[in-house]
Amino acid sequence: MGEVTGHEFHFDAEPYPLKFSPAETALVVIDMQRDFLEAGGFGEMLGNDVSLLRGAIKPTKAVLDAARECGLLVIHTREGHAPDLSDAPASKLARGNLETGIGDEGPMGRILIQGQPGHDIVPELAPAAGEPVIDKPGKGAFYSTELGKLLETNKIRTLVVCGVTTEVCVHTTVREANDRGYECLVLADCVGSYFPEFQRVALEMIKAQGGIFGWVGDSASAISALRAATSVAAQ
Fold first, then answer.
1. Cβ neighbours, 10 Å, residue 2
2. Has 70 been annotated as catalytic?
3. Cα–Cα distance measured from residue 45 to residue 107, given in angstroms and rounded to the nearest whole number
4. What is the number of helices (H) and of strands (E) in the chain?
5. Whole-model pTM over 0.85
6. 146 alpha-carbon distance from chain centroid
7. At residue 79, what are phi and psi to the nearest 5 degrees?
8. Which one from 31, 35, 120, 218 is the annotated catalytic residue?
9. Cα–Cα distance between 234 and 70 in angstroms, integer?
10. Can 169 be counted among the known catalytic residues?
11. Residue 35 annotated among the catalytic residues of the structure
């Protein structure tokens, strides 16, 4: 693929189109893990309907394919902890008064523990060779990780964001990115929440007041913009 120069590309989004350069744009796929999205995982154990999250898999896969074709930096994140739980605050482990919680044995191994089956990214969205995977102990992808350095090294300015859950790890990461000067585009059909009302309000909050935290678009418009950039680069 050739280098794209002298061309201007935009994502169709709210509250207004977002200008982007493919070389300065990264796709960030947040916490699309088996424990959150699959039957028998931690999310379902907490009484949630995982189908509300699984709906984001197909459109995210389509965006992921388009981003790879366009040559975007693709970054995956996973929430989880070291086997000895040394990176898990006591408050996080205790919260919820759960009979079975983080570090305990579940249907997919120890819950949210690195290296366990439930910690893995769902197979439909498996990272390709060479794509960075950021293991994070918190909700936000910047806290106690190398994400900031990775973005800086690659001269990234714009983040296209997919993942779960919308109001927790996605929102926290977008807020962290916003404070660090990154432009964030959240794709509404590529993010999901166990609570439909949280999904709606979380997306409204991102684009409110002229884009206080960023932009909201969808997979179709993002793919269209990425394909346009890919077509120009191939000329």
1. 8
2. no
3. 9
4. 9, 10
5. yes
6. 15
7. -90, 130
8. 31
9. 10
10. yes
11. no
Supply 32's token pair.
Answer: 């699309």
Catalytic hit among 169, 184, 190, 207: 169
Specify whether the CB–CB gap between 7 and 231 falls below 8 A: no
* Catalytic, out of 61, 136, 139, 207: 136
DSSP state string for 155-219 = T--EEEEEEE-IIIIIHHHHHHHHHTT-EEEEEEEEEE-SSHHHHHHHHHHHHHHHHSS-EEE-H
CA angle 133, 13, 216 (to 5 degrees): 50
Q: Give the closest residue to 46 by CA, choosing from 172, 166, 194.
A: 194
SS3 92: helix
Helix axes 196-211, 171-179, angle to 10 degrees: 20
Over its length of 235 residues, how does the chain's per-residue pLDDT go in tens digits? 334 445 789 999 999 999 999 999 999 999 999 999 999 999 999 999 999 999 999 999 999 999 999 999 999 999 999 999 999 999 999 999 999 999 999 999 999 999 999 999 999 999 999 999 999 999 999 999 999 999 999 999 999 999 999 999 999 999 999 999 999 999 999 999 999 999 999 999 999 999 999 999 999 999 999 999 999 988 7
